[in-house]
Amino acid sequence: MNAKITYLLLLCWLLVFEANGQTATRISYAYEGIPLEAVITDLQERYDLRFTYSPSRLPMDMPLYAKADKVEVPVAMETLFSNTPVKHAVISQQIVLRSDQGALSQLAKKPPLPRQTTPLYQEARHQRIVVPATPSLAVKTPTQLQGGDRWLKTKLEEEELARIAQAMEEHDRQLALEAYDATHRLAQISILPYLGTNTYRSDEVTNNISLNIFWGTSRAINGFELGGVANSVVQDMSGFQMAGVLNQVGGNVTGTQVAGGMNYTQGR
Questions:
Q1: Spacing of C-alpha 101 from chain mean position
Q2: Where are the beta strands (DSSP E) in 144-192?
């Protein structure tokens, strides 16, 4: 029995490790003008990262300039593709890539500046300083990735491209929901500012119901707030607000305020 339990625990640990292994991996790179295709090949070979993309829909010869030193995969990808026409999403064990058509249409190669031949022109002062990659990366014609994603081939069908776009849209929606959940609460209870259920994030959270025994702080109120002494709202208050002494709102008020001492609204 003990052996079976140990085997099950080991199996669960391996599954969890595999599910989180890629994003928990810390990677380093330094690219100075390395083409996108060579960068993908380099990351695949050194860190066994798996990419899903259509080579015919990405600027594979676009040079990349980015550095990262022992950072996790999501952070490394954000640094690598920032200020480029390539959009990415880390989904499960895949790094999904697709082009931003709007940004891609604006990508144009700048013509080289004419070189002056006059001896008065100090050419050495205008030479570009190139920082060598660490580890060094030779620019070569990339070969087919071994052991990569099964969607990686010369040309993807339209339905496969639609699947990539759908996965990235779902990823964006999930991130938006997580951001909303992190800044919105049904209710909070506090004794003093930052001494309550929202703790140090009190001024970052919007509450539907806020009950402050003495004094409380919220980013915004969309519903009802009651304070024994005072209520402080960083942005807008919408609904009904009552305090024993003071209601203080940094934005606009839509609804009713009642205070034993004063209502102060910075906006409308």
A1: 20
A2: 184-192
Distance CA 148, CA 146 (A): 5
Q: Exposure string (b/e) for 235-245, b if CB count within 10 Å is 16 or more?
A: bbbbbebbbbe
Cα 97 to Cα 102: distance, rounded to the nearest angstrom: 15
Give me 247's structure tokens. 């209601």
Q: Is the per-residue pLDDT at 18 higher than 80?
A: no
Residue 227 has pLDDT above 80, yes or no: yes
Q: What value, to the nearest 5°, has the Cα angle with vertex 266 and ends 264 and 268?
A: 100
What's the pTM value of the predicted model, to 2 decimals?
Answer: 0.41
The amino acid at 64: L
Tell how strand 86-91 and strand 94-99 pair up: antiparallel
CA distance 12 to 72: 23
Q: Which of 138, 51, 147 is nearest to 94 (CA)?
A: 51
Residue 237: partners with Cβ closer than 8 Å, 6 or more residues away: 220, 221, 225, 247, 249, 251, 252, 253, 254, 255, 257
Listed residue (75, 48, 224, 73) closest to 149, CA to CA: 48
Q: Are 118 and 105 in contact (CB under 8 A)?
A: no
Please give the structure tokens belonging to residue 126.
């205008």
> Of how many residues is the chain composed?
268
Share of the chain above pLDDT 70, in %: 68
Asked if 221 and 234 touch (Cβ cutoff 8 Å), the reply is: no
pLDDT the model gives residue 123? 43
Of 73 and 109, the one with more pLDDT? 73
- In the DSSP assignment, the letter for residue 116 is P
Distance, CA of 102 to CA of 12 (rounded, Å): 44
β-strand 262-265 against 253-259: which pairing, if any? unpaired
